[in-house]
C-alpha cells in the first residue's frame, strides 16, 4: 500500500526485532544502526558495537560463521544470580544462605568451566556433574574451597570412587541418589576407601510443570526416587548406622519452567520432603531446587514455554520465602540451585553471513500475452486485471486453478517450458498484487498470510542449523535473530533463512515477533560488495555439544572476547573451526588413503593421455586445498 514511509530510526529496529525485550539489558542498538553489546561495570554500562568486534576478529583471520562468546556476560549472569538470592535472603531475614552450582552438561566447553570457576570464587559457585567425565572436569577445575560438587546421574563404582577421592582431597562433593541401587554401592566403596560420603536424595515430586521438558516432573519421571523408595533408603541407612550421611534433598523438574507458581508449588512440596527426612532423624542441612529457571527467549514475559512469567529476583524470592515459611523454625538449610540455561544462554551468539538470496518476484516484461497462447493462459492474463476489481480473492483462486491445469498440460507435453515459466511469473505477479491490496487491512482473507509467506525471500545463510542450533531443528526452540548492522535503515524485505546443508529441515522459518511468533524475518536488501551479517542470540546453553555433522559441516570458528571498562576489547581465545580434513578423519577416513587413491586415478589418466602432468599436479593441489579449508562457504 502506498503510504509515505516515515523516517526509520535505530529505535524502530530495536522494537521490530525485540532486542530490548529479549536482551536482558545486554543488547541494544546504537545511533549508527549497529547492534551493540552492553556490559555492566561499576562505573556504568559500556557499549561496544558488534560490527566493530567482528571487524577486529576478521582482521585476526577469523571467518564467518563465527561463534562469539562475550565473557563479561557470563560473569554478569553469575553475579546477578547470586546477588538475587543474597538480596532475597537479606530482605526476608532468612537465617540460612545460598550457594549455586553450574550443571556442566549445559555447556561443557573448557573455557566456560574455567570462567565459572574463576568468576564464581567470591560467590563460592560450584559445579554439578551428571557423569564420570563431568565429575573429572569438576574436581580438577575447582579449588577445594568449600564450593559444592553435586553429583547427579547414574553412578557406577568408578564414578563413586572418584567422588569419594574428591572428598578426601577436601572437595565438598555430594552424591545425589538417583536409584535405590546406588546406595549399597556407595556404602561399599566408602567402607573400602575409608571415606565418609555425603548423600542426597532426589525426590520425584508430584507437582507437574509446564514447558518442553515437563516429562522430568511427576511420578512417571525417569529420575529420582519414589516415596516408597525414599522410605527404603532411610531404612537401609538406619540399618547400616549411616543415617548421618544424609544431608541433602534434591529436586529438578526440568529445564525452562515458564510459570513461577508451579516452581513455588514444587518448592513447597520439596520442603515437605526435607522436613519429613529431618523428622526421620537425618541431619540434612541442604535443599537443592535443581534447574528450571527459564530464559525469556521471546522477550514477552509470558507463560509461553519459551518465555517466563517472572524475573530472576522473583524466582529467588519465591524459593527463599518458601524455605523460610516451611523450614526456618528448625535449622535453616543452605539453599542450592543448579541454573544452567540462564547462566550461559546470553553469553554466546552465532554470527553468519547471507551468501545468496532467492526472490519470488514477477518479471514485468514477461507479463504480456502472446497471440498463440492457449486459452487458459490468456484467461490468466485477464484475471490478473480482475485482481483490482470487486472480488480479488475469487479471481486469485481462479488463477491458481488455471495454473494447476497448465501444469498438467506441461506434463502431457502440451505446454512449452517457456510458457510454463510465464505461468509461474503470472502467479507471482497475482500473489504480490493480492498481498499489496490487502496488506495492512485487519479484515483480510485467511489465505493471505500463507501467501505472503510463500512470496517471502529465501536468504541462504552460511551456517548449519544442525551443527549450531540443534534445538531449533529438533524441538522448535526459538532464538532471537537480527541483523547486526544497517539497523538505521528500514528492512524492506521479508525472508526465511535456509542453511547451507542439503536438508529441507535446515532452515530458520520461525522467528520471534511482537506477541506471536512470525514465519518470516524482516531483512534488508543485500548490497553488492557488502556482507550482510545476521546474529542468532542466546545460544550459549545446550547448543554446542548437541550439534551434529549433518552434510559434514563441522565446528565453526570460535572467538571469546572480554570487553574492557574503556570500551575496548581483548580477544581472549580464538579457535579455528574444523577443516574438511578434520571431519573426514572423524568419519574414519584416512586422508592419506584418499589422497593416494586420487593420485592413482590421476596417474592412470596421465597414462591414458587424458590429462597432462601439469593437470595432474593441479588436480592434486586442489584436492589438498579443499581438505585444508573450512567446511563452510568461503566468499
Ligand atoms: C540439566 C539439569 C540442570 C540444568 O537445568 P536448567 O534448567 O537448564 O538450568 C540442573 N540440574 C539437573 C539435575 C539437570 O539435569
TrEMBL record:
EC number: 4.1.1.19
Domain Arginine decarboxylase C-terminal helical, chain residue ranges per copy: 580-633
GO molecular function, one term: metal ion binding
Active site: 502 (proton donor)
Domain Arginine decarboxylase helical bundle: 371-451
Residues modified as N6-(pyridoxal phosphate)lysine: 105
Needed cofactors: pyridoxal 5'-phosphate; Mg(2+)
Keyword Lyase belongs to the record: yes
All residue ranges annotated as the Orn/DAP/Arg decarboxylase 2 N-terminal domain in the record: 81-345
Keywords: Decarboxylase, Lyase, Magnesium, Metal-binding, Polyamine biosynthesis, Pyridoxal phosphate, Spermidine biosynthesis
Domain of life: Bacteria
Cross-referenced InterPro entries: Ala_racemase/Decarboxylase_C (IPR009006), Arg_decarb_HB (IPR040634), Arg_decarbox_C (IPR041128), Arg_decrbxlase (IPR002985), De-COase2_N (IPR022644), De-COase2_pyr-phos_BS (IPR022653), Orn/DAP/Arg_de-COase (IPR000183), PLP-binding_barrel (IPR029066)
A biological process from GO: spermidine biosynthetic process
Purpose: Catalyzes the biosynthesis of agmatine from arginine.
NCBIfam families reported for this sequence: PRK05354.1 (NF003763), speA (TIGR01273)
Family label: Belongs to the Orn/Lys/Arg decarboxylase class-II family. SpeA subfamily.
Name recorded for this polypeptide: Arginine decarboxylase
Organism: Geothermobacter ehrlichii
Amino acid at each position: 500500500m502506498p503510504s509515505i514511509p516515515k523516517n526509520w530510526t535505530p529505535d524502530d529496529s530495536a522494537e521490530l526485532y525485540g532486542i530490548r525485550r529479549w536482551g536482558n539489558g545486554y543488547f541494544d542498538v546504537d545511533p549508527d544502526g549497529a547492534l551493540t553489546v552492553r556490559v555492566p561495570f561499576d562505573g556504568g554500562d559500556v557499549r561496544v558495537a558488534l560490527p566493530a568486534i567482528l571487524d577486529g576478529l576478521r582482521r585476526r583471520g577469523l571467518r564467518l560463521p563465527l561463534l562469539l562468546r562475550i565473557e563479561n556476560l557470563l560473569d554478569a549472569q553469575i553475579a546477578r544470580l547470586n546477588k538475587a538470592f543474597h538480596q532475597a535472603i537479606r530482605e526476608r531475614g532468612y537465617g540460612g544462605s545460598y550457594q549455586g552450582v553450574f550443571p556442566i552438561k549445559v555447556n561443557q566447553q573448557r573455557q566456560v568451566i574455567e570462567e565459572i570457576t574463576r568468576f564464581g570464587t567470591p560467590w563460592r559457585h560450584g559445579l554439578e556433574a551428571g557423569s564420570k567425565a563431568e565429575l573429572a572436569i569438576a574436581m580438577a577445575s575447582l579449588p577445594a574451597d568449600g564450593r559444592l560438587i553435586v553429583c547427579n546421574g547414574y553412578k557406577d563404582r568408578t564414578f563413586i570412587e572418584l567422588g569419594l577421592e574428591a572428598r578426601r582431597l577436601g572437595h565438598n562433593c555430594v552424591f545425589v541418589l538417583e536409584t535405590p541401587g546406588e546406595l549399597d554401592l556407595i556404602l561399599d566403596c566408602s567402607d573400602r576407601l575409608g571415606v565418609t560420603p555425603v548423600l542426597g536424595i532426589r525426590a520425584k515430586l508430584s507437582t507437574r510443570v509446564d514447558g518442553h521438558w515437563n516429562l522430568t516432573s511427576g511420578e512417571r519421571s525417569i529420575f529420582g526416587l519414589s516415596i516408597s523408595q525414599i522410605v527404603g533408603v532411610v531404612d537401609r541407612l538406619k540399618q547400616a548406622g549411616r543415617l548421618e550421611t544424609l544431608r541433602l534433598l534434591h529436586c529438578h523438574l526440568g529445564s525452562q519452567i515458564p510459570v513461577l507458581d508451579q516452581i513455588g508449588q514444587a518448592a513447597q512440596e520439596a520442603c515437605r520432603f526435607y522436613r519429613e527426612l529431618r523428622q526421620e532423624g537425618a541431619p540434612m542441612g541442604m535443599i537443592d531446587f535443581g534447574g528450571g529457571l527459564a530464559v525469556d527467549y521471546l522477550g514477552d514475559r509470558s507463560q509461553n514455554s519459551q518465555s517466563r512469567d517472572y524475573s530472576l529476583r522473583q524466582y529467588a524470592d519465591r524459593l527463599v520465602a518458601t524455605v523460610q515459611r516451611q523450614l526456618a523454625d528448625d535449622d535453616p538449610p543452605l539453599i542450592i540451585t543448579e541454573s544452567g540455561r540462564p547462566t550461559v544462554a546470553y553469553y554466546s551468539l552465532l554470527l553468519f553471513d547471507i551468501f545468496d538470496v532467492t526472490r519470488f518476484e514477477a518479471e514485468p516484461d514477461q507479463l504480456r500475452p502472446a497471440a498463440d497462447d492457449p486459452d487458459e493462459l490468456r484467461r490468466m492474463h485477464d484475471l490478473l486485471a480482475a485482481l483490482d476489481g470487486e472480488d480479488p480473492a475469487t479471481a486469485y483462486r481462479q488463477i491458481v486453478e488455471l495454473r494447476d491445469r497448465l501444469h498438467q498440460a506441461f506434463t502431457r507435453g502440451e505446454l512449452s517450458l517457456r510458457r510454463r515459466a510465464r505461468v509461474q511469473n503470472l502467479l507471482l505477479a497475482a500473489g504480490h498484487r493480492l498481498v499489496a491490496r490487502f496488506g495492512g487491512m485487519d479484515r483480510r482473507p485467511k489465505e493471505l498470510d500463507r501467501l505472503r509467506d510463500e512470496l517471502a525471500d529465501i536468504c541462504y545463510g552460511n551456517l548449519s542449523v544442525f551443527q549450531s542450533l540443534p534445538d531449533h531443528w529438533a524441538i522448535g526452540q526459538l532464538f532471537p535473530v537480527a541483523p547486526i548492522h544497517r539497523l538505521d535503515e528500514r528492512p524492506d524485505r521479508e525472508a526465511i533463512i535456509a542453511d547451507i546443508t542439503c536438508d529441507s529441515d535446515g532452515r530458520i522459518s520461525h522467528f520471534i515477533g511482537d506477541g506471536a511468533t512470525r514465519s518470516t524475518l524482516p531483512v534488508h536488501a543485500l548490497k553488492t560488495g557488502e556482507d550482510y551479517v545476521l546474529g542468532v542470540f542466546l545460544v550459549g546453553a545446550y547448543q554446542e555439544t548437541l550439534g551434529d555433522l549433518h552434510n559434514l559441516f563441522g565446528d565453526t570458528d570460535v572467538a571469546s572476547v572480554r570487553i574492557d571498562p574503556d570500551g575496548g576489547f581483548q580477544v581472549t581465545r580464538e579457535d579455528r573451526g574444523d577443516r574438511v580434513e578434520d571431519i573426514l578423519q572423524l568419519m574414519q577416513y584416512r586422508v592419506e588413503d584418499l589422497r593416494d587413491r586420487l593420485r592413482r586415478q590421476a596417474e592412470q589418466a596421465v597414462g591414458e593421455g587424458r590429462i597432462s602432468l601439469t593437470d595432474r599436479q593441479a588436480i592434486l593441489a586442489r584436492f589438498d586445498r579443499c581438505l585444508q579449508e573450512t567446511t563452510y562457504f568461503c566468499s
